[in-house]
Amino acid sequence: MAERVQIFQGVRAYGDEVIHGCFSKVGVGRLKGLVSTTTTFIFFFFLLIAALLNRMDIRGTSIGQSIFDSRTSKTYHERIEFPLNCSNSVNLPQTCPENYPSVFQPQESSARTCPDYFRWIHQDLKQWKSSGITEDMIERGKPSADFRLVIVNGKAYVEKYNKPYQTRDVFTIWGILQLLRLYPGKVPDLDLLFYSGDKTMIMKRDYKGLNATSPPPAFHYCGEKAALDIVFPDWTFWGWAEVNIKPWEETLRAIKKGRERIKWEKREPYAYWKGNPYVAKDRVDLLKCNLSDKNDWNVRIYKQDWGKESQQGFKHSKLEDQCTHRYTYAILLLME
Ligand SMILES: *[C@@H]1O[C@H](CO)[C@@H](O)[C@H](O)[C@H]1NC(C)=O
Ligand SMILES: *[C@@H]1O[C@H](CO)[C@@H](O)[C@H](O)[C@H]1NC(C)=O
Ligand SMILES: *[C@@H]1O[C@H](CO)[C@@H](O)[C@H](O)[C@H]1NC(C)=O
């Protein structure tokens, strides 16, 4: 999330997801979200050609998690049919049946492999490999957390410590509830701390030295080399109500439809970027690439006017309406 990159302290931006739609958010942007970094960052300007989406296989699961693999990859993941069967009426709140199954036995073939990005969990948990995670570590981590999530027998319990920005916690917890619904009987009991701010919280430097205590494990939307925060998909997978971003599956569907509106050849032959430049220095630098009297690098940069957009219900911020240019910029934050 752009807000993670807070170079300008004190700027309370509306949390600006890179608004660029069409291709880059599909797969690539999301995947990198899992390994993005806060303060140490290498900015990659990816020029993704419009055809990119066509080369990709996006297999979404109903929890909004999209498993992405390119056609060149040999690994394919089977689509599991979930037992979830809830009403999805436009006018009524969504309801699920009372007699919801408590076990889930999907037909899994033995050849099934985990998506490649699963390997990162070993990296993220390396710190606790020899010590394990103790109750004491969790207790000591409370001051760094916004909430604590405990799952016992498939039921989620939440203890709140701080009020997170907007509804990040609500959507994150909603994601967890969906997970429990989708995999009844499959989610083990757990006890975890969660932090929902922009900047990494558990810094390695604070847990060094002779008398150092062991760091608390805290889940968070971002991590970086200097920190021990354990990365977790950010809330926008399930939605971002304040800026009218729907759950990822719906967003993906809308983008796929949106890109049909103008044929690639008919689109503006430029690279497009829209967002809030004032949350990171590199974004401000990007403004210099815009069309000017002196240069035309075939780049068109647009500022997201959050104030105006919020008054108009974010009608002009829809990702699916931004498939107007042939190329798009994705500013990816990668692990060093
Ligand atoms: C889902 O529920 C509806 C209405 O109760 C029912 O008609 C339908 O057969 C169910 N589908 C599955 C896959 O169970
Ligand atoms: C570690 O703790 C001991 C005993 O409390 C103290 O004497 C020593 O100075 C501490 N060392 C460091 C590096 O803080
Ligand atoms: C970039 O250039 C385009 C085309 O001239 C213009 O419409 C747009 O407002 C410029 N963006 C910024 C951030 O100045």
UniProtKB/TrEMBL annotation:
<protein>
    <recommendedName>
        <fullName>Glycosyl transferase CAP10 domain-containing protein</fullName>
    </recommendedName>
</protein>
<keyword id="KW-0812">Transmembrane</keyword>
<feature type="transmembrane region" description="Helical">
    <location>
        <begin position="33"/>
        <end position="53"/>
    </location>
</feature>
<keyword id="KW-0472">Membrane</keyword>
<dbReference type="InterPro" id="IPR006598">
    <property type="entry name" value="CAP10"/>
</dbReference>
<feature type="domain" description="Glycosyl transferase CAP10">
    <location>
        <begin position="186"/>
        <end position="336"/>
    </location>
</feature>
<dbReference type="Pfam" id="PF05686">
    <property type="entry name" value="Glyco_transf_90"/>
</dbReference>
<dbReference type="InterPro" id="IPR051091">
    <property type="entry name" value="O-Glucosyltr/Glycosyltrsf_90"/>
</dbReference>
<keyword id="KW-1133">Transmembrane helix</keyword>
